[in-house]
């Protein structure tokens, strides 16, 4: 069956902003799908609100709509584009839900759009618990005993059947959001209520607990002629009870006999057939009772998923690409296997290595959140590693996680043998309650002499895994005993390397340094080889250059040709502050190098990304980003240049070490990168250029900090140096706050100094991205922040072009940018953060920070302007001049683009959502329109902040903003909103003649705002904080707002913008337009 | 806890092309020669160890972690082991599975199988892939490279040898063992399963005679569980003796090595065709082809694994199959009486045939799986229809 000729134009929906449970993996799958469909000659229309994706590059689809992901907006796109079909299975849960809503609201029928791959009936059968359960019973498969309920009373009745502990799962949420285990009746009631609130259909599932069972996943594909294959099996290291996204997972399944595996395979085939997924990939999860082998089906996702991205990277089989081709009619056996070229896509990959994935968490950003791992996903990223054995892949994954561990122990953060060494009770507690650091407590348990059986009893982790870890500890003890590198014989050293011990780890055990171990093992000729990921365990020749390192005898990397080779270091696992934006830059660097005829070599350890698609670069090395691993690759491929500017902080942290080992870093020099980080150097440079900086200082201890504070004055901004994403960064308004926050900053700084700056109150923050080739510097985008300075730039909304800054200020900003670029001799990208403060003698421009590297805003700038910023920067780094590339003027679009941040607060109940200098957002969206107000309205809608059209607004401004309250109240009143306020604010409004209803403060009793929230009787909260923290009255109100899905705006600037937006949506229709059209219009000017 | 990797002695594998791998001994000690081949199944090492078709071969597992789930008394395809040697990257320190009864290395020692662990198995596989399957030697006694390579070169090839004699039974036997619960559950979805407990008399069951050339036990288990009376006869039994047993169908089993020298079987099968329904698997498939006048040839390195795609030409459906063969039926000079029903999707070789006029069909792969996927169980149903048609006639 060849491709369908009756379809011409296909609509694809992306997954929107990066949130917990939905990350880069859908950029990877969506991009693959777009490419695959266009390769077949279809016209592709794409809707996605996330500008930081490769998928929303104007070159990826024929018509790209960066618009809010709601069914109403997508309907506008459908009305405009009139696609023949909608492919809903490649954009995560978001796309699936929107497709379901479009269907339910009759949109698809109205415009004659066919849902391909999986129709609404199929999706409902897979996603609705009762239907799914019925389907499983029909094909003779066991499922968890459970009941779907729509109220607390029904839930209590269900509990009587399943007993405690019981699992509570809200329906139709992504990443298992809202799922948790109840151990007692009180918890149960709370979880059910929470789950009902979070479920878009007010429905939760109450299930028997299968905590401690072994957990497995199967990635299955089906074509429309009913050919079904299993692409990959995955076994979870963490037993049932921890969300699979939060579990360490291993591919392939390790502890199943063939009989058990085939039973699971049979079940997987039966499930995909019974559910009726017509074409494409599905993910099916199973639990197995370890002592009896009883197998139950947990759930199935009738779409590509995070696990399918992992399976694709783990096997080399491009699930999303093939899924797209199956959707338009091909059969599996009609499609080639890209890797072997000779064989077909209809087979089951077999692998000859072990893959380990380890999730990365960000609890340090949310100290008030519950850090226990449950059935609701909480991790923000993941790393994957490939090794020939479990031990090797596991230890590689731990160092790829970039949390300071360089293997299973003996790293600088290891607590064993230090004052902080945990005692037995603490170890037992940490083992029995899964948390983000449990794997390290397994180590402590083993070091303390606990047996594998005991650890298994506490963790339910299969003894197979634990035994291999115990072996690592035995080896560590043996080597530590030897105490010196010279005493380890060559065979032993080779054995250690084969088991994944890093040079750094061996150095720690032998009292040497990483580089000493490296040169010692090189002298013993112990060096890794690089093997291919080829889907077939070497049965056929592989044509895809996708490699991993291991200590074996034969390497498979092709020899260097006449072509230049340039290596790009990626960003590693996603974390808050370093995510998809940097992956976007790395991909563009690769594309640009290829355009120049240079071999592009990608190094990264993040399985979710487009950069780790084997199709992105000329060679892909799936490796941890550490000095050791990168140097090993350099030894093998001899790059002519290495790019460290694009992967965020990760590669920058390696730059100095790499350069010292003779690796050619291209672009801005390592010295310049350091100079920008060095406060004193930077300060003198600013003075030299005649620019301004807020008064600032450095303190190495509390005493110095006090001296500096006196000199600088309050309010002061305090932060540890060399830390990303504003970790432990705080604004102090007085001495008491200062004392507290500086003390905290010293702890986080971990030996490094603490930086103190004068905080510029009520200043406007501006971000600038520019490219310099050493001679010329061209500004790519000036972004004016909506929120005032003090909110981390990664968390604030910003706008291109600037919406309020006067021309002379912009001229000053441009001038300062060029001066800094020239003085620092920047080659490539540079980001500068400015603050503009209105002072007695007019607006003054201050420089807050200079980063001579790609910033998080690069993709946003590229989408706003249509200029491929990262690609241009790459070509400059490879030796081209801006003039040669024809880049001479700053692009200033005619439309307004606003970037808004998206936060994970709904995943962390009770956390205060006030924005501050510490970054906490996970993703971003973009709103584009001809006018600011509509662009802002779109950005809010896209971020999930639904601005109300009518109803009640709670207004509570801090003392500093009391003067603004009347004007704001008046505007809202004019828009027809009812106002609610507590005493002080209410009085002020009344005095000004504005109608307001006074509500009580929480401490004053009822009815207070929490009651209004619970009764769905308030639609928006405008609250500028005077205090911070979950314990304050305000904190409680804001957290309650989040839990009840009521938007909460916490800055005056955003409140003003929101008023303008609410006015705009009344005055005009929200229009949709493709990027391609917008750029064409901009170019006409 | 003993760590076999650390306490075992060095051992070597040498290939006829001069390549030598140094690893560690696993299982028994000594020296053994054989044809070095590889299997790409990630599970099922115990079934592979007990598969008689590996007679005369040194089997390399491409999946590096082996022994993870131990061994048990159920996942056995034949008593004892027939393969010459076993090569893996890493043996698990412990077996972890509720079905496990012993560790892999204990099992190898008990069955006197010479193993080698710790080598770069992927480079070995790439060697075999590019040069072709070749003779090799594993030794724990002789670690001299030149001497070992000489031994590998001197080792006899599989071509032209009758290895079936080493693994076939020496007398007729009645088979009553059913499928275990694992396979029975799956089969029950698509087909009628008859249990011994149902108490059906032998006289009321169709009668299948299996010519055993080194048959995997899961085949007669399937035949039994589908309600047949199953009689196993040695592979060199004559057609007359077989027909005297009054079978409703004859099954031709898998077995080791080259089908060409098994002239006795060609003759027997030639005499059976047309008189009784015949179903062949693997070697049985090749023997049917030879009996009909086709030719067989040796593949460069064969097909061994549980992920081999086969296209059913009639339905245009793909089955993922278990395969284990080094020889194949040649497309050239295929006699007119035979029709190709299945092809291997990877290299387009013949994977199934049927006779145009007689009730004869055969597949090159293993519908009984063990180890491997169950996609091809329908072939047993197909045979069953012929058997019952014959029995009721």
From TrEMBL, chain A:
UniProt: Mg(2+) 3 binding residues: 833, 849
Catalytic reactions of this protein: hydrogencarbonate + L-glutamine + 2 ATP + H2O = carbamoyl phosphate + L-glutamate + 2 ADP + phosphate + 2 H(+); hydrogencarbonate + NH4(+) + 2 ATP = carbamoyl phosphate + 2 ADP + phosphate + 2 H(+)
Chain residues that bind Mn(2+) 2: 299, 301
The organism's place on the tree of life at top rank: Bacteria
The protein's enzyme class: ligase
Region named Carboxyphosphate synthetic domain: 1-402
Cofactor: Mg(2+); Mn(2+)
Binding site for Mn(2+) 3: 833, 849
Residues noted as binding Mg(2+) 1 in the record, renumbered to the chain: 285, 299
Residues that coordinate or bind Mn(2+) 4: 849, 851
Residues binding Mn(2+) 1, per UniProt: 285, 299
Gene Ontology biological process terms in this record: 'de novo' UMP biosynthetic process; glutamine metabolic process; L-arginine biosynthetic process
One of the Pfam families matching this protein, by short name: CPSase_L_D1
Cofactor note: Binds 4 Mg(2+) or Mn(2+) ions per subunit.
Assigned keywords, A-Z: Amino-acid biosynthesis, Arginine biosynthesis, ATP-binding, Ligase, Magnesium, Manganese, Metal-binding, Nucleotide-binding, Pyrimidine biosynthesis, Repeat
Function comment: Large subunit of the glutamine-dependent carbamoyl phosphate synthetase (CPSase). CPSase catalyzes the formation of carbamoyl phosphate from the ammonia moiety of glutamine, carbonate, and phosphate donated by ATP, constituting the first step of 2 biosynthetic pathways, one leading to arginine and/or urea and the other to pyrimidine nucleotides.
Domain-related comment: The large subunit is composed of 2 ATP-grasp domains that are involved in binding the 2 ATP molecules needed for carbamoyl phosphate synthesis. The N-terminal ATP-grasp domain (referred to as the carboxyphosphate synthetic component) catalyzes the ATP-dependent phosphorylation of hydrogencarbonate to carboxyphosphate and the subsequent nucleophilic attack by ammonia to form a carbamate intermediate.
Family membership noted in the UniProt record: Belongs to the CarB family.
Protein name: Carbamoyl phosphate synthase large chain
Annotated organism of origin: Allorhodopirellula solitaria
Taxon lineage: Bacteria, Pseudomonadati, Planctomycetota, Planctomycetia, Pirellulales
TrEMBL record, chain B:
HAMAP family: CPSase_S_chain (MF_01209)
Principal EC category: ligase
Catalytic activity: hydrogencarbonate + L-glutamine + 2 ATP + H2O = carbamoyl phosphate + L-glutamate + 2 ADP + phosphate + 2 H(+); L-glutamine + H2O = L-glutamate + NH4(+)
Keywords: Amino-acid biosynthesis, Arginine biosynthesis, ATP-binding, Glutamine amidotransferase, Ligase, Nucleotide-binding, Pyrimidine biosynthesis
GO terms (BP aspect): 'de novo' pyrimidine nucleobase biosynthetic process; 'de novo' UMP biosynthetic process; glutamine metabolic process; L-arginine biosynthetic process
Positions with a binding annotation for L-glutamine: 53, 255, 257, 283, 286, 324, 326-327
Protein name: Carbamoyl phosphate synthase small chain
Gene3D superfamilies reported for this sequence: 3.40.50.880, Carbamoyl-phosphate synthase small subunit, N-terminal domain (3.50.30.20)
Family: Belongs to the CarA family.
One Gene Ontology term of the molecular function aspect: ATP binding
Region CPSase: start-end pairs: 1-206
Active site positions, chain numbering: 282 (nucleophile), 366, 368
Highest rank taxon of the organism: Bacteria
InterPro entries found in the cross-reference section: Anth_synth/Amidotransfase (IPR050472), CarbamoylP_synth_ssu (IPR006274), CarbamoylP_synth_ssu_N (IPR002474), CarbP_synth_ssu_N_sf (IPR036480), Class_I_gatase-like (IPR029062), CPSase_GATase1 (IPR035686), GATASE (IPR017926)
PROSITE patterns in UniProt: GATASE_TYPE_1
Entry-linked Pfam families: CPSase_sm_chain, GATase
Catalytic activity, EC: 6.3.5.5
SMART domains: CPSase_sm_chain
Residue intervals of the Carbamoyl-phosphate synthase small subunit N-terminal domain: 9-139
Record text on subunit structure and interactions: Composed of two chains; the small (or glutamine) chain promotes the hydrolysis of glutamine to ammonia, which is used by the large (or ammonia) chain to synthesize carbamoyl phosphate. Tetramer of heterodimers (alpha,beta)4.
Pathway field: Pyrimidine metabolism; UMP biosynthesis via de novo pathway; (S)-dihydroorotate from bicarbonate: step 1/3; Amino-acid biosynthesis; L-arginine biosynthesis; carbamoyl phosphate from bicarbonate: step 1/1
Function of the molecule: Small subunit of the glutamine-dependent carbamoyl phosphate synthetase (CPSase). CPSase catalyzes the formation of carbamoyl phosphate from the ammonia moiety of glutamine, carbonate, and phosphate donated by ATP, constituting the first step of 2 biosynthetic pathways, one leading to arginine and/or urea and the other to pyrimidine nucleotides. The small subunit (glutamine amidotransferase) binds and cleaves glutamine to supply the large subunit with the substrate ammonia.
């Amino acid at each position: 069956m060849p491709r369908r000729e009756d379809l011409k134009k296909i609509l694809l929906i992306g997954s929107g902003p990066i949130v917990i449970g939905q990350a880069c993996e859908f950029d990877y799958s969506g991009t693959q799908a777009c490419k695959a469909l266009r390769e077949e000659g279809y016209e592709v229309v794409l809707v996605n609100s996330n500008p930081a994706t490769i998928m929303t590059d104007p070159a990826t689809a024929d018509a790209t709509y960066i618009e809010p992901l709601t069914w109403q907006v997508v309907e506008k796109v459908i009305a405009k584009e009139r696609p023949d079909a909608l492919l809903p299975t490649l954009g995560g849960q978001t796309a699936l839900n929107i497709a379901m809503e479009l269907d339910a609201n009759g949109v698809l029928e109205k415009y004659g759009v066919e849902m391909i791959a999986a129709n609404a009936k199929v999706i409902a059968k897979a996603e609705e618990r009762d239907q799914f359960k019925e389907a499983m019973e029909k094909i003779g498969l066991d499922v968890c005993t459970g009941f779907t309920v729509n109220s607390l009373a029904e839930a209590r009745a269900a509990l009587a059947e399943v007993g405690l502990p019981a699992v509570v799962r809200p329906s139709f949420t992504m990443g298992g959001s809202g799922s948790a285990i109840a151990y007692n009746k009180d918890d149960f009631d709370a979880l059910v209520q929470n789950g009902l609130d979070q479920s878009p259909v007010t429905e939760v599932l109450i299930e028997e607990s299968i905590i401690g069972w072994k957990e497995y996943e199967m990635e299955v594909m089906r074509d429309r002629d009913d050919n079904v294959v299993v692409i990959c099996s995955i076994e979870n290291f963490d037993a049932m009870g921890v969300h699979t996204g939060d579990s360490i997972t291993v591919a392939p399944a390790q502890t199943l006999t063939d009989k058990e595996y085939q039973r699971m395979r049979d079940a997987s085939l039966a499930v995909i057939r019974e559910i009726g997924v017509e074409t494409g990939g599905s993910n099916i999860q199973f639990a197995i009772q370890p002592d009896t082998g009883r197998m139950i089906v947990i759930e199935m996702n009738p779409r590509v998923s995070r696990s399918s991205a992992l399976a694709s990277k783990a096997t080399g089989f491009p699930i999303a690409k093939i899924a797209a081709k199956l959707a338009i009619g091909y059969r599996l056996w009609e499609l080639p296997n890209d890797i072997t070229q000779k064989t077909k896509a209809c087979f089951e990959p077999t692998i000859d290595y072990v893959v380990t994935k380890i999730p990365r968490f960000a609890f340090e950003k949310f100290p008030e959140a519950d850090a226990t791992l449950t059935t609701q996903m909480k991790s923000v990223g993941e790393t994957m590693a490939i090794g020939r054995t479990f031990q090797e892949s596991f230890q590689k994954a731990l160092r790829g996680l970039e949390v300071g561990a360089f293997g299973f122990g003996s790293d600088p953060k290891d607590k064993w043998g230090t004052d902080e060494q945990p005692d037995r009770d603490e170890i037992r507690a940490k083992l029995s309650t899964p948390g983000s650091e449990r794997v390290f407590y397994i180590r402590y348990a083993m070091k303390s002499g606990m047996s594998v059986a005991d650890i298994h009893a506490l963790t339910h982790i299969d003894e197979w895994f634990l035994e291999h870890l115990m072996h690592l500890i035995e080896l560590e003890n043996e080597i530590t005993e030897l105490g010196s590198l010279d005493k380890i014989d060559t065979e032993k050293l080779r054995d250690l390397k084969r088991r994944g011990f890093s040079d750094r780890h061996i150095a720690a055990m032998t009292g040497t340094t990483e580089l000493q171990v490296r040169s010692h093992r090189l002298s013993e000729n112990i060096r890794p080889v690089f093997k291919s990921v080829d889907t077939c365990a070497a049965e056929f020749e592989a044509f895809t250059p996708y490699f991993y390192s291991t200590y074996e005898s034969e390497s498979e990397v092709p020899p260097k040709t006449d072509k230049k080779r340039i290596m790009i270091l990626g960003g590693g696992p996603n974390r808050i502050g370093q995510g998809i934006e940097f992956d976007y830059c790395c991909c563009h660097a690769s594309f640009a190098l290829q355009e120049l005829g240079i071999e592009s070599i990608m190094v990264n350890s993040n399985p979710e990304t487009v950069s780790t698609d084997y199709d992105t670069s000329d060679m892909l090395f799936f490796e941890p980003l550490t000095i050791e691993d990168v140097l090993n690759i350099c030894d093998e491929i001899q790059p002519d240049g290495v790019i460290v500017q694009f992967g965020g902080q990760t590669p920058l942290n390696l730059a100095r070490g790499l350069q010292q080992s003779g690796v050619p870093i291209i672009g801005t020099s390592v010295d310049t990168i350091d100079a920008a980080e060095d406060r004193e150097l930077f300060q003198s440079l600013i003075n030299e250029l005649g620019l301004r900086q807020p008064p600032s200082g450095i303190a190495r201890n509390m005493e110095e900090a006090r001296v500096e504070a006196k000199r600088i004055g309050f309010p002061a901004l305090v932060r540890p140096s060399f830390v990303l994403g504003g970790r432990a960064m705080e604004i102090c308004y007085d001495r008491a706050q200062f004392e507290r926050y500086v003390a905290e900053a010293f702890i986080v700084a971990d030996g490094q100094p603490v930086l103190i700056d004068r905080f510029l109150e009520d200043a406007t923050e501006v971000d600038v991205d520019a490219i310099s080739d050493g001679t010329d510097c061209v500004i790519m985008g000036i972004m004016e922040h909506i929120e005032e300075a003090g909110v981390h730039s990664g968390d604030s909304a910003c706008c291109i072009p600037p919406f309020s800054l006067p021309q002379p200020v912009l001229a000053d900003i441009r001038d300062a940018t060029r001066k800094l670029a020239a003085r620092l001799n920047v080659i490539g990208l540079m980001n500068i953060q400015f603050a503009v403060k209105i002072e007695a003698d007019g607006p003054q421009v201050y420089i807050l920070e200079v980063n001579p590297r790609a910033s998080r805003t690069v993709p946003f700038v590229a989408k706003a302007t249509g200029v491929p910023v990262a690609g241009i920067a790459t070509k400059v780094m490879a030796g081209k001049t801006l003039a040669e590339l024809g880049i001479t003027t700053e692009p200033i679009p005619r439309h307004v683009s606003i970037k808004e941040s998206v936060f994970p607060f709904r995943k962390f109940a009770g956390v205060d959502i006030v924005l501050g200098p510490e970054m906490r957002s996970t993703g971003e969206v973009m709103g584009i329109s001809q006018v600011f107000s509509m662009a802002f309205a779109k950005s809010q809608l896209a971020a999930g902040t639904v601005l109300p059209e009518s109803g009640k607004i709670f207004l509570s401004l801090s003392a500093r903003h009391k003067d603004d309250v009347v004007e704001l109240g008046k505007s809202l009143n004019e828009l027809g909103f009812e106002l609610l306020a507590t005493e002080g604010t209410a009085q002020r409004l009344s005095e000004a003649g504005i109608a307001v209803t006074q509500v009580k403060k929480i401490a004053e009793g009822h009815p207070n705002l929490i009651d209004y929230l619970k009764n769905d009787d308030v639609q928006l909260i405008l609250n500028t904080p005077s205090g911070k923290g979950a314990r304050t009255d305000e904190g409680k109100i804001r957290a309650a707002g989040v839990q009840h899905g009521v938007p909460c705006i916490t800055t005056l600037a955003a409140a003003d913008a929101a008023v303008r937006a609410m006015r705009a949506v009344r005055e005009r229709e929200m229009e949709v337009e493709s990027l391609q059209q917008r750029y064409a219009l901009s170019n006409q000017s | 806890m003993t760590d076999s990797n650390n306490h075992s002695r060095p051992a070597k594998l040498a290939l006829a092309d001069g390549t030598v791998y140094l690893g560690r001994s696993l299982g028994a000690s000594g020296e053994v020669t054989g044809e070095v081949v590889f299997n790409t199944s990630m599970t099922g090492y115990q079934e592979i160890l007990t598969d008689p078709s590996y007679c005369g071969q040194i089997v390399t597992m491409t999946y590096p972690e082996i022994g993870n789930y131990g061994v048990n008394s159920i996942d056995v395809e034949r008593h004892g082991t027939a393969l010459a040697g076993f090569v893996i990257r890493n043996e698990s320190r412990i077996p972890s599975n509720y079905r496990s009864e012993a560790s892999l290395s204990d099992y190898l020692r008990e069955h006197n199988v010479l193993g080698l662990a710790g080598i770069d198995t992927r480079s070995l596989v790439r060697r075999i892939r590019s040069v072709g399957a070749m003779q090799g030697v594993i030794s724990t006694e002789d670690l001299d490279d030149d001497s070992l390579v000489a031994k590998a070169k001197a080792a006899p090839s599989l071509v032209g040898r009758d290895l079936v004699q080493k693994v076939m039974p020496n007398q007729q036997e009645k088979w009553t063992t059913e499928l275990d619960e694992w396979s029975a559950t799956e089969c029950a979805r698509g087909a009628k399963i008859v249990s011994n407990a149902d108490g059906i008399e032998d006289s009321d069951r169709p009668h299948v005679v299996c010519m055993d050339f080194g048959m995997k036990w899961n085949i007669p288990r399937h035949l039994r569980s589908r309600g047949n009376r199953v009689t196993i006869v040695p592979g060199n039994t004559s057609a007359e003796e077989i027909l005297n047993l009054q079978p409703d169908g004859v099954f031709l089993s898998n077995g080791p090595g080259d089908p060409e020298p098994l002239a006795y079987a060609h003759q027997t099968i030639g005499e059976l065709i047309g008189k009784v329904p015949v179903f062949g698997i693997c070697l049985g498939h090749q023997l049917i082809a030879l009996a009909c006048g086709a030719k067989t040839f040796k593949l460069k390195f064969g097909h061994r694994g549980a992920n081999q795609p086969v296209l059913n030409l009639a339905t245009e459906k793909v089955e993922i199959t278990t395969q284990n063969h080094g020889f194949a039926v040649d497309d050239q000079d295929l006699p007119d009486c035979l029709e190709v029903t299945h092809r291997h999707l990877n290299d387009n070789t013949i994977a199934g045939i049927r006779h145009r006029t007689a009730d004869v069909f055969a597949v090159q792969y293993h519908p009984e799986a063990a180890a491997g996927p169950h996609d091809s169980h329908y072939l047993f149903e197909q045979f069953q229809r012929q058997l019952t048609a014959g029995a009721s006639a």
